[in-house]
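QA checklist item 7 of 12: single-chain prediction sanity check.
[x] sequence parsed
[x] length recorded as 135
[x] structure emitted
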Amino acid sequence: AIAGVSGTWTPVLAGSSTAGSYTLSLLGSQTYWKIGKLVYLRCRFFVSSIATAGTGNLVIKGLPFSVAADIDALSIIRTSLVNWDSDTAFISAYVSGSTINFAVNKINGLVPVIKITMITVLTELGVSGCYLTNS
């Protein structure tokens, strides 16, 4: 058997400038596994209510461990009811510090960030992937 630790974590949806207050309904378990410095995690949820809308970029906080490098990529496993522009090619996620950030890759090559204002009640997001930590 491979030695490691596992557990659950609680994703926190927020805006990067002003957090706002979002109630999430978790879908399945929000789990992580850590083997050495490698962390695999997953989360999936939908927004059930917005008490106060945040401002700035869309982020998910609450990761169980901080990332070692500036940026490590994750996979988007699910999105629905997000107000994407018609020229959106795909979206991507990456970890910086202990926060998941998102970017939109456009058909014209531009890569803007995703604003928290694009998120509405019933928006569903899912993320999974691996990143390296320092410990």
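[x] summary fact logged: Residues 93 and 102 are 4 Å apart (CA to CA).
[ ] second reviewer sign-off
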